[in-house]
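Thread: "does anyone have the structure for this chain?"

Original post by V.I.:
We have the sequence but no experimental structure in hand. Need at least a predicted one for the grant figures.
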Amino acid sequence: MTVELTRARRVLTARRSDEGARRWPLSRIFTLVAAVAAVLAITTIVLGGLALARLTAARAALLDVAGPAVIAAQQLSRAVVDQETGVRGFGLTGRPEFMDPYTSGVADERTQVAALRAYAATGGFDHVGRDIDAVEQAATRWRDAYANPTFAGVRPDAVEGRTLFDGVRAATGTLTADIDVQRLADRDRLNAAAAYVTVTGIAIAVVMIAFLAAAAVGLRRAVLRPVSDLAAQVRDVVSGGVQRPVHGAGPREIFELGEDVDAMRLHILHDLDEAQEVNRRLDRQTRDLERSNRDLEQFAYVASHDLQEPLRKVSSFCQLLQRRYGGQLDERADQYIEFAVDGASRMQRLINDLLAFSRVGRTTEAFTPVDLGEVAAAAAAQLDQVRVDTGGTVTVGVLPTVTGDATLLRQLLVNLLGNGLKFHRDGVAPEVTVSARTVDEGWEIAVADNGIGIEPEYADKVFVIFQRLHGRDLYPGTGIGLSLAKKIVEFHGGAIGLDTTGGPGTVVRFTLPTTPLPAPEEK
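Reply from O.Q.:
Generated one for you, tokens below.
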């Protein structure tokens, strides 16, 4: 599998270097989009600026030139009329105050003519300049031929004066009409510039909307869709489809990401194959171990059971020999017989303990609600003779009701209480206390005594089968008691250990779950 993975990686590298090099990277795509956006933005600014400049120029031509020129033409016409009114009044009455309208009209005429020439120069009204010249010439002829002689006391021909003034009026009318035509043309240009601004704005909006739509579609096709497809393939792999290859599409980065994910998939597949192979080996070893354990337990049970009968015969006949011939032989023979009886008794106790140890965990059919208070009382009663012999006391506190095997739990407490009574200090009456408290795992039961105690370094060793800390001549036993207690507690889903926090004596704590673990199948 390692060779295949290496080959797949080589193929992946070659494929990436070939196909990936032909794909555009995201940086190039985004640069292109940004360049197009920049060109569109510059074009928009230029077109908008031109449209606004055109609109501004048209507005200025209308409001700053054509409009004021029309007003100046109207005021020029009024100034000429004022002159004619003053001349006529003076001619009829001869009163000098009529010269004031004439004089102010002449001054106003010159002012308006100067303003009109300035407007004509600014707006490019060449034909208006000719109209102004015509007005000035007509007004000069009228003043020279009629107005000035009238003020000098000469009576010119009134018909000729009227004819000359009609020429002035016609010239001012022509000037006013031409300027008004120019004003209308400037208004049309202003309307056209406004329409151009509107059309330009609409065109810019349409182009920007089209660009954004194209960018969105392109982004979706070039980036979002490949990313979505790659994510769907990754989710498929996560869901268990590790055999399906993962292929990236779109820009170079997404394509290479897909290739990296596929390489990771191949690596995970390789690790998964190795893990499955390890699990298969572990399953085989577990089945072999379970079969071996069952065979060993069966062997221990059968061997212990089959040893009972010959051992009982040996023990019975040794005891019979001791009773019948005790004292009739020499002292050495009596000692040999006593050794044989003691050995047979210890062997019988060892076999019984082995049988009890092998029976633990064979079946959970006996699991029922068990009142630990009653079980502890029964265990204390079973040890009543030992308690009397040692002068000790057993105190049982309030204990809970748990689910388990009553017989095994009583055997557990018998072993723990018996150890508390057995391993007492010389000259000190043993005191054994059983108490309970709630913990996260369920219930914690503590069996405490005031005996010789156990050193912390032996806290784990004492729970190993056949491990003893004292010789048989000091404390009798087979060395199975605490290992049997450990097996019973673990069979009920709990844990057991020594409390080495200090203080005299020994404290054994074990837990029992409130809700028992699923019961193992019968072996």
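V.I.: this helps a lot. The longest strand covers residues 431-439.
O.Q.: and The CA atoms of residues 64 and 119 lie 9 Å apart.
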